[in-house]
Predict the 3D structure of the following.
Amino acid sequence: MKIRAAVLEEFGAPLAVQEVELEEPRRGEALVRLVACGVCHTDLYTASGADPSGYAPAVLGHEGAGVVERVGEGVESVAPGDHVVTLFSPQCRECIHCRDERTNLCLAIREQQNVGLLPDGTTRFAYPGGEPIRHFMGTSTFAEYTVMPEIALAKVPPEAPLDRACLFACGLSTGLGAALNTAKVRPGSTCVVFGAGMVGLGAVAGCRLQGAERIVAVDLSEDRLELARGQGATETLVGGPDAVERILELTDGFGADYTFEATGNVAVMRQAVESARMGWGLATMCGVAGKGETLDVVPRYLITGRRVAGSSFGGVKGRDGVPRVVERWLAGELDVDPFVSHTLTLDEVNRGFELMEAQDGIRSVITFS
Ligand SMILES: NC(=O)c1ccc[n+]([C@@H]2O[C@H](COP(=O)([O-])OP(=O)(O)OC[C@H]3O[C@@H](n4cnc5c(N)ncnc54)[C@H](O)[C@@H]3O)[C@@H](O)[C@H]2O)c1
Ligand SMILES: [Zn+2]
Ligand SMILES: [Zn+2]
């Protein structure tokens, strides 16, 4: 079928929105009609050429939500009409990682996904002349329709508005999950969240859901700190070189039970380690650092009982975990509306990148009519 999609053709150039061919879903795959898709940093990171593993041409986009239109042979977990959130981090439920509660890093389709192919080693997207266009993060949701493996689709209740549910496909689940799954914040604790973008605000909300008593949000922007208050931050702090000192002052010299880093800046990651409490402080890293950058940790911080964890997609096993947090949103436990700052059309996708670079708002969401 002919559909419109935003194609990365040349690194550093705007995405080219155009008509492309999309093949029918094959075995284990589903055709999804996108209803909404958030614009996330990873899309821009790849489009800019900064990501060393990037490739082109490819249909970008990974923060998608939509409706299943048709399914290929053998598909049992989703059916036409189902509302779904797309998962760049799939859950096959069979691999060694899926069967272990300690990780969400499913091994099933990683290799093919990393090079932009579906699990059978081919693509469903092509230029009208037949030249293949690769998939991106196994999702390719900057498109009116996409084809994805069923193990990468989380079924959500039909009453969940999809122009908000799409945020659970990446940024929001990443932050929430860091607090719920990776850190497993205990009730009554003191938490510090560095960065109040989509991921950090999700972490603030996650700490609140876990019953944290104090949640200190740290960011450079007063507007974002205000949003953090709306998500449950009890205190806010303007970030900078003295952030660790300030946090120690706020915590009787000890530091926080849990710290979260959601900036992608390795100097802030170090602050997250150093502002965690001796004895049991846990510093969870969500940010993606630049190529070749390293995190500096003075080993004494570890010997005296601090721990460092990393969190990919908030440790969420997508097909099980995304519906659970969506349910909590529908039950009124989460306020998602403040995260959607701009609504765009697919043709305006490059504007979404510009808004992100200007740090104008938290998320731009593309809606398809
Ligand atoms: N682990 C994952 O699976 C995953 C998923 C999505 C995004 N990410 C990464 O998470 C990070 C955050 O994503 P986002 O969408 O929230 O980004 P964002 O750019 O919207 O937010 C980052 C925030 O950090 C703040 N900041 C910058 N320097 C700071 C400092 N010195 N002290 C305090 N705050 C500072 C900025 O003001 C901004 O509000 C990025 O690195 C992104 O690539 C990771
Ligand atoms: Zn993302
Ligand atoms: Zn798996």
Remarks:
- The radius of gyration is 20 Å.
- The mean pLDDT is 97.
